[in-house]
Specification:
The chain has a single domain (2-238), classed as Neuraminidase (6 Propeller), CATH 2.120.10. The protein is globular, with a radius of gyration of 18 Å. It has strands at residues 2-3, 6-10, 13-16, 30-33, 37-41, 55-57, 77-79, 87-91, 116-123, 132-141, 147-151, 156-160, 163-165, 176-180, 182-186, 191-195, 206-207, 210-214, 222-226, 229-230, 236-238. Helices cover 0% and strands 39% of the residues. The chain is mainly β and 239 residues long. The relative contact order is 0.14. The chain contains no helices and 21 strands. A four-stranded antiparallel beta sheet has the order 1-2-5-6, with no helix packed on it. A four-stranded antiparallel beta sheet has the order 7-8-9-10, with no helix packed on it.
Length: 239
């Protein structure tokens, strides 16, 4: 996600190269997960083959609650928030079951079950307090692999369908339940709600689809959903 000329990457699975490492799992093309929030300054010129650089922030626990954002998030989302908001946000996702790949990271790739979903904020205006803070929590289970869109002009984010699971390692739906509906996150008021989307033609819950916000159509803009994978015999769970 790009905000204020900075690219933010939270979590994800990636390949990492540690030249000369004696550890066979940390050599070329090691597949692992990223436990950091990465910042890439887009105002500077760089060549990905020669001099690309980034800051890897290891955010602290919430100083008020002691909670920490889901470590090494994959299949979640980083949200922009309002244009004048000094924070970015994280929502959804799960922890991977893959081996870590950053050599200085001592976390492991253990999985964790879905929990009650939280919206986390991270202040980007200052580097004095590098911590995610919980700004909203709901009884909606934490989804992943949903379709995400934002309306920054309205301070709203949308998370369509996706799935709720404990420890999947692929897009397979074993031990997963599809989320039936859409979560709307108000990043200005720090609230979230659930709405039914059964009005969609031939509607079935899906994963890994796309969602796009189009402003200036209708009263408040429109959302366009496209693609995704459906499962005819898979259980869905209305909230």
């Amino acid at each position: 996600m790009v905000k204020n000329d900075t690219l933010f990457i939270d979590g994800g699975i990636q390949s990492f190269n540690v030249p000369g490492s004696a550890d066979q799992y940390r050599t070329n093309s090691t597949l692992g997960h990223n436990p950091y929030l990465l910042k890439v300054d887009l105002r500077d010129s760089w060549d990905w083959r020669l001099n690309i650089s980034y800051n890897a922030l290891d955010p602290n626990k919430d100083p008020d609650t002691g909670a920490r954002v889901r470590n090494t998030m994959i299949a979640g989302s980083v949200l922009h928030g309002r244009y004048d908001d000094p924070c970015i946000y994280a929502y959804g996702g799960r922890s991977p079951g893959s081996r870590e790949s950053f050599p200085d990271n001592d976390t492991n790739g253990s999985t964790e079950p879905s929990e009650k979903s939280k919206v986390w904020s991270f202040g980007i205006a200052t580097n004095k307090t590098q911590s995610w803070k919980t700004v909203n929590s709901s009884d909606i289970p934490t989804p992943n692999y949903g379709a995400v869109a934002e309306a920054p002009d309205q301070g709203l984010a949308f998370y369509l369908n996706g799935r709720i699971d404990d420890h999947p390692s692929t897009l397979e739906t074993k031990d997963s339940t599809l989320l039936d509906g859409m979560v709307i996150v108000d990043l200005a008021q720090h609230t979230s709600s659930y709405v039914s989307v059964n009005g969609m033609a031939a509607y079935k819950p899906r994963i890994a689809g796309s969602l796009q916000y189009v402003p200036n159509l209708g009263h408040n803009g429109i959302l366009i959903a496209f693609g995704g994978q459906v499962f005819d015999e898979k259980q869905s769970a209305p909230i």
